[in-house]
Amino acid sequence: MPCGLFFETYQKDESIFPTLWLKVWMIALGLFLLTFPFFSQTVSDWLGINVLNLFNLIFIYIVGAHGLNLLTGYTGQISLGHGAFMGVGAYTAGILANLGWPFWLALPAAGLMAAAVGMIFGIPSLRLRGLYLAIATLAAQFILDYAMRNWSSLTGGSSGLIVPAASIGSLTFDNDFNFYFLALGFAVLATMYLKNITRTRTGRAFVAVRDRYLSAEVIGVNLFKYRIMSFGISSFMVGIAGGLWAYYITIISDEHFTMWLSVQYLAMIIVGGLGSVLGSIYGVVFMVTLPELLRLPAEALTNVYPDIFVIFSSLREMVFGIIVIIFLIFEPDGLAARWHTVRAYWKLWPFSY
């Protein structure tokens, strides 16, 4: 009976899927995700919610959460402006789509624009760290929020901006079913990219900047280069998420990209696990499905307490904050760390010692 995983080469130690069991699980997960839309209607009828819409939101948020986790979890740079950076990507994609740009060209442009804006606001990272950098990125949130709301000739202001549905050739992603496969593809690409960049020289430099930035600088790591690069890559990914969001809901306004969205993104990676690829995914799944799970008992009690939806809406932010605090106290490393603990226990069971 195996009592652990032991590798004889560095290649096997660094492989993404080191065991046959893990490969089988990943193949099973891939088949489930590819076939899920075909029986999703049954699940939706049973739960009383549109599960395809829920999955599409999860996939879009995963792309952005991976970006923020790269910046905050791997490089140690706190950002409270990623909600606005997502808005930059969404508006760029929407404006270019209305100018006739195809989806496959407008979406990368949205990411590049968000990356450029993120790198500009990331320049203070050379001098500032911790809470001071958080305040600097918070200023970015307010400035961009003001621009999105008041630059009406470009963004449509409070009236919003209508975005045509995404299309590639003759295939149009104008419903939940078609968009599911598009969003799934981008979520998988973002996950693979984050997993691989953390295994490269660049990824190790990010971690060195996070853990001991003075020591990293002494051994030759260019702090300014890697901090700005981290801001750029992170903002690019969240800009892609913003572009997907714009193409999905087809109408965007400044109310979608407020400070609340930046806090939600930060909560996702804290709850899921900072500096962990799985942490981003777990955090997004938890934070997106939590409101829906809380809504189910509220609907069941509607006949008994007619005003419970009003009470629930006013308490939702409070419940959200309490859950984040509970995670910080009892599981500061997030859901990913809890999952590793559970998996390690069963891997060695019944001879855990």
UniProtKB/TrEMBL annotation:
Keywords: Cell membrane, Membrane, Transmembrane, Transmembrane helix
Source species, domain of life: Bacteria
Gene Ontology molecular function, alphabetical: branched-chain amino acid transmembrane transporter activity
Membrane topology classification: Multi-pass membrane protein
CDD domains documented for this protein: TM_PBP1_LivM_like (cd06581)
Localization (cell): Cell membrane
Pfam families, per database record: BPD_transp_2
TM region positions: 20-39, 51-71, 78-97, 103-123, 130-148, 177-194, 231-253, 265-288, 308-330
GO CC list: plasma membrane
Entries under PANTHER family matching the protein: ABC TRANSPORTER PERMEASE PROTEIN, HIGH-AFFINITY BRANCHED-CHAIN AMINO ACID TRANSPORT SYSTEM PERMEASE
Protein name per Swiss-Prot or TrEMBL: Branched-chain amino acid ABC transporter permease
